[in-house]
């Protein structure tokens, strides 16, 4: 089974300068910096099959995870879907079928598989069967199959986007077998070229000059006298179209090659696709090729008038020896910036919860990978809340896990049976043990699993270059396994998991399915490519970085077309799902995953893991709203029983207010998805609430960037992983200076960059006080455009905002010290630094043991019934359906309790308190439908 529950060639210098190699501890251990891998299968491990169906012409590492992979794994093959054609290698030859005019759709499937239907099978006059079909050669999106039975041989070449299939023969001639006699509308027995129709599909049959046909009028056609031959599926049955395709029918494709280039100045990825052809007769070079929507939408190539229908949408045709696509790279970040509207104390509490978790350290490559991914998002959030201890703990755990996996020998120098990577030289692949979901036996999902390892390593490399230098060779080995672009690298195939023509990755290693290969969790593929960007940037390996950028950008466009169909042009009307949960070669489905049909997971599998590399999901908020609405409908409401945190994060893209409301109601009680954390979910939701979604129309001349847009106000974010300041220029003219190894942001509201200058820092902070209040005053700040207001912080926590230069903080405890700072902000969202801290102690109280917090919306009262308890009441001005109290005592574990309604006044008593303990109290309450969070109140018992 495949999924769980659930190149201008870039000569990648994956083998970066290594540290001095250490001696092998066991025979078969290969050192890589401080790490190592094994060429010996670990004890008890299951290897993949040894048989590879290939001829002696195929040497080196064997590609897997391709649309044609079953040809290498099976005696013949399963169905293959290069589009527009579908093919299947069989004992009697190659079965050919055009799904285009027979694609059907229903509410959850766009179906275009072969099943038992075919238009015809091309075989050999010298034999009725072959013992096998073997891979005889391959290029970036074409494959060559060889059939041989003694002196009788047939070579077949076919590929992605090609309406042609090419044949060469020895020992006999082409023989085509049909279910029923085809209609012949052009040519005769004496002509080498026939135009035929079979079951509504039109084909050109192109024999060599001088060849003839026999069997016309029957179900078997034989092309006599041809040692080379080709067929082409035709868009129509006109003589003009047949003549056009005949122009290229004898120009056999012999090689295909893709190259990628990334232009940092324009943030543009150019993908160049090149065909090499051989003229079997005449001198024609080039071919006719069909482009997928993600290609023709991003290409200036002149198009022909011919089109094909496919399960990916309309394919448009062009001719020649090459074409290019150009796509904008919209940037990735190591983490979202510290711009959220969240409460820092709450975020800190979520960090504390994650810090308190324990992990056994055991598990397979996928689930250990999920743990690594979780830690990689937590560490920079802990940095932002100033919790250095937690940040270090998270990164140290990453190091511990990775170093365990990146060393093949144990302390005694013996080969480990667990937490080890093994290199299989037969296939040319790196397998981690324990394995899972067929990652060993079927070579499934390597990019899904290893992407998490690379992402976690990148987070460590961001702050610890020495560690990256020491252990980096093992990280680069994982990258070479999933996305090698060095064609001189004999250890690994070219782009194992990424299909350059389809524009996306494939998950199954063998593709042994009647529906072809498949890919479910497109977002985990994006996670792997983003990890390469971050790792490459952190380690100075621009080849790895640029490959990651190319794959990320291409797959993002493919996802938007084939998983999400954000433009609404590819899914047929009969397919009513808002998203594809799985994309197959022969179909698209939207109602299930490998493990469940649960709507939350059907939708969420193409979102996780949420990180700053997931901002591409925010580019089309109208679509996300449609997709979320469909999820709610399929689920029968918002009572989600799985992945609540992911759903609220997704909802924040189209409706952050509702996402916050959901979080207020459920955040404390829910359990985060295994690869996620409450801290990451809260951080994401409240960042999008503050700065909006990523704006793909504005790019930057650095790879680590994002531009957010909230109601026309843009926030420009860039991260600098170098040791020197950099200046980042955005495509609308905005310039942001970024210090070494840190974030910087700018803000603006229009073209040319808008306002990026923050107000001056407030000065002269003074106060007056009572036993229950502090009134602050300060000098007005200045700004190049104008100050819009001020933010009030108490002990570093934002408690309120004001447009005045005075502010009264009420509801304070008598005789209690408080510390305040103030920040100024302008209309564009630029925020000044904090003022100098102002410390003040409220006046002593006169007894009574009661404290009130009064606002226009509610009155909260704390009274002391006993020396060890506090009774809290909450009286809302508007009747509330519920009120929840949240509190911590001396900063310990947060408690969340539904208060008791006593005739409109909500009550809760906190017991077991000791004198001097400090309580942080706040409330969540419903008011006429929406939910609200109160400010935090600090009270000393």
Automatic annotation (TrEMBL):
<dbReference type="InterPro" id="IPR005200">
    <property type="entry name" value="Endo-beta-glucanase"/>
</dbReference>
<keyword id="KW-0732">Signal</keyword>
<dbReference type="InterPro" id="IPR013783">
    <property type="entry name" value="Ig-like_fold"/>
</dbReference>
<dbReference type="Pfam" id="PF17652">
    <property type="entry name" value="Glyco_hydro81C"/>
</dbReference>
<keyword id="KW-0119">Carbohydrate metabolism</keyword>
<dbReference type="InterPro" id="IPR003961">
    <property type="entry name" value="FN3_dom"/>
</dbReference>
<dbReference type="GO" id="GO:0071555">
    <property type="term" value="P:cell wall organization"/>
</dbReference>
<keyword id="KW-0624">Polysaccharide degradation</keyword>
<feature type="compositionally biased region" description="Gly residues">
    <location>
        <begin position="746"/>
        <end position="755"/>
    </location>
</feature>
<dbReference type="InterPro" id="IPR047569">
    <property type="entry name" value="CBM56"/>
</dbReference>
<feature type="signal peptide">
    <location>
        <begin position="1"/>
        <end position="25"/>
    </location>
</feature>
<keyword id="KW-0961">Cell wall biogenesis/degradation</keyword>
<dbReference type="GO" id="GO:0000272">
    <property type="term" value="P:polysaccharide catabolic process"/>
</dbReference>
<keyword id="KW-0326">Glycosidase</keyword>
<dbReference type="GO" id="GO:0030246">
    <property type="term" value="F:carbohydrate binding"/>
</dbReference>
<dbReference type="GO" id="GO:0042973">
    <property type="term" value="F:glucan endo-1,3-beta-D-glucosidase activity"/>
</dbReference>
<dbReference type="GO" id="GO:0052861">
    <property type="term" value="F:endo-1,3(4)-beta-glucanase activity"/>
</dbReference>
<dbReference type="Pfam" id="PF22184">
    <property type="entry name" value="CBM_56"/>
</dbReference>
<feature type="domain" description="CBM56">
    <location>
        <begin position="853"/>
        <end position="941"/>
    </location>
</feature>
<dbReference type="InterPro" id="IPR036116">
    <property type="entry name" value="FN3_sf"/>
</dbReference>
<dbReference type="Pfam" id="PF00041">
    <property type="entry name" value="fn3"/>
</dbReference>
<comment type="similarity">
    <text>Belongs to the glycosyl hydrolase 81 family.</text>
</comment>
<feature type="region of interest" description="Disordered">
    <location>
        <begin position="744"/>
        <end position="769"/>
    </location>
</feature>
<dbReference type="InterPro" id="IPR040720">
    <property type="entry name" value="GH81_C"/>
</dbReference>
<feature type="domain" description="Fibronectin type-III">
    <location>
        <begin position="758"/>
        <end position="845"/>
    </location>
</feature>
<keyword id="KW-0378">Hydrolase</keyword>
<protein>
    <recommendedName>
        <fullName>glucan endo-1,3-beta-D-glucosidase</fullName>
        <ecNumber>3.2.1.39</ecNumber>
    </recommendedName>
</protein>
């Amino acid at each position: 089974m495949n999924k769980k529950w659930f190149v201008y060639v870039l000569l990648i210098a994956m083998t970066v300068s290594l540290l001095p190699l250490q001696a092998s501890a066991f025979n078969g251990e290969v050192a890589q910096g401080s790490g190592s891998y094994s060429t010996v299968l670990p004890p008890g491990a299951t290897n993949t099959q040894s048989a590879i169906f290939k001829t002696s012409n195929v040497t080196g590492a064997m590609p897997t995870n391709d649309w044609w992979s079953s040809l290498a794994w099976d005696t013949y093959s399963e169905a293959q879907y290069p589009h527009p054609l579908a093919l299947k290698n069989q004992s009697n030859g190659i079965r050919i079928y055009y799904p285009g005019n027979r694609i059907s759709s229903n509410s959850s499937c766009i179906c275009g598989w072969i099943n038992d239907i075919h238009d015809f099978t091309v075989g050999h006059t010298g034999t009725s069967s072959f013992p096998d079909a073997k891979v005889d050669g391959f290029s970036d999106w074409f494959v060559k199959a060889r059939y041989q039975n003694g002196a009788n041989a047939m070579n077949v070449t076919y590929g992605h986007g090609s309406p042609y299939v090419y044949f060469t023969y020895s020992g006999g001639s082409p023989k085509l077998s049909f279910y029923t006699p085809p209609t012949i509308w052009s040519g005769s027995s004496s002509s080498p070229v026939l135009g035929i129709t079979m079951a509504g599909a039109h084909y050109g049959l192109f024999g060599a000059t001088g060849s003839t046909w026999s069997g016309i009028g029957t179900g078997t056609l034989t092309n006599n006298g041809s040692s080379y031959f080709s067929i082409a599926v035709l868009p129509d049955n006109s003589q003009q179209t047949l003549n056009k395709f005949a122009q290229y029918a004898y120009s056999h494709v012999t090689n295909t090659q893709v190259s990628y280039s990334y232009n940092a100045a324009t943030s543009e990825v150019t993908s160049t696709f090149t065909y090499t052809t051989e003229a079997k007769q005449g001198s024609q070079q080039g071919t006719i090729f069909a482009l997928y929507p993600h290609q023709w939408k991003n290409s200036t190539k002149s198009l022909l008038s011919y089109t094909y229908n496919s399960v990916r949408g309309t394919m448009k045709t062009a001719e020649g020896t090459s074409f290019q696509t150009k796509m904008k790279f919209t940037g990735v970040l190591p983490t979202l910036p510290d711009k959220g509207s969240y409460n820092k104390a709450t975020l800190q509490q979520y960090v504390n919860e994650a810090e308190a978790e324990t992990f056994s350290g055991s598990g397979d490559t996928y689930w250990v990978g999920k743990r690594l991914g979780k830690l990689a998002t937590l560490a920079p959030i802990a940095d932002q809340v100033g919790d250095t201890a937690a940040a270090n703990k998270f990164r140290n755990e990453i190091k511990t896990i990775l170093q365990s996996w990146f060393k093949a020998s144990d302390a005694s120098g013996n080969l480990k049976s667990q937490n080890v990577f093994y290199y299989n030289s037969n296939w040319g692949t790196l397998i981690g043990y324990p394995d899972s979901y067929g990652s060993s036996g079927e070579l499934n999902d390597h990019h899904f699993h290893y992407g998490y390892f690379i992402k976690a390593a990148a987070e460590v490399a961001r702050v610890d270059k020495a560690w990256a230098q020491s252990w980096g060779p093992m990280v680069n080995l994982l990258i070479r396994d999933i996305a090698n672009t060095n064609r001189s690298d004999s250890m690994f195939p070219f782009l194992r998991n990424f299909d350059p023509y389809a524009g996306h990755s494939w998950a199954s290693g063998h593709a042994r399915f009647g529906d072809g290969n498949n890919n479910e969790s497109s977002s985990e593929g994006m996670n792997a490519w983003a990890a390469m960007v971050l790792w490459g940037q952190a380690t100075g390996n621009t080849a790895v970085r640029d490959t990651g950028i190319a794959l990320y950008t291409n797959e993002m466009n493919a996802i938007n077309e084939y998983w999400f169909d954000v433009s609404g042009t590819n899914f047929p009307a009969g397919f009513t799902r808002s998203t594809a949960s799985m994309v197959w070669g022969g179909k698209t489905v939207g109602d299930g995953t490998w493990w469940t049909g649960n709507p939350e997971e059907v939708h969420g599998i193409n979102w996780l893991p949420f990180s700053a590399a997931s901002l591409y999901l925010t580019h089309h908020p109208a679509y996300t709203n449609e997709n979320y609405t469909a999820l709610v409908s399929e689920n029968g409401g918002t009572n989600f029983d799985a992945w609540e945190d992911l759903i609220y994060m997704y909802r924040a893209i189209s409706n952050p207010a509702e996402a916050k409301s959901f979080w207020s109601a459920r955040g404390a009680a829910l359990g985060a998805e295994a690869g996620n954390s409450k801290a990451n979910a809260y951080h994401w939701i409240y960042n999008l609430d503050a700065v909006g979604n990523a704006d793909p129309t504005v790019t930057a001349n650095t790879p680590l960037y994002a531009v957010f847009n909230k109601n026309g106000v843009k926030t420009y974010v860039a991260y600098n992983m170098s040791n020197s300041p950099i200046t980042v220029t955005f495509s609308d003219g905005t310039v942001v200076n970024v210090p070494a190894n840190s974030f910087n942001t700018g803000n603006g509201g229009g073209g040319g960059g808008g306002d990026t200058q923050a107000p001056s820092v407030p000065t002269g902070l003074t106060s007056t006080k009572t036993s229950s209040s502090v009134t602050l005053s300060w000098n007005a700040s200045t700004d190049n455009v104008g100050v819009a207001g001020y933010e009030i912080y108490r002990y570093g926590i934002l408690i309120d905002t004001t447009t005045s230069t005075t502010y009264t903080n009420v509801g304070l405890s008598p005789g209690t010290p408080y510390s305040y700072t103030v920040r100024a902000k302008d209309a564009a969202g630029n925020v000044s630094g904090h003022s100098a801290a102002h410390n003040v102690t409220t006046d002593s109280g006169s007894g009574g043991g009661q404290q009130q917090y009064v606002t226009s919306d509610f009155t909260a009262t704390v009274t002391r019934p006993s020396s060890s308890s506090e009774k809290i009441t909450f009286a809302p001005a508007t009747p509330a359906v519920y009120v929840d109290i949240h509190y911590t005592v001396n900063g310990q574990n947060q408690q969340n309790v539904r208060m008791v309604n006593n005739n409109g006044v909500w009550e809760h008593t906190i017991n077991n308190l000791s004198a001097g303990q400090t309580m942080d109290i706040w409330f969540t309450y419903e008011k006429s439908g929406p939910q609200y969070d109160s400010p935090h109140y600090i009270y000393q018992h």
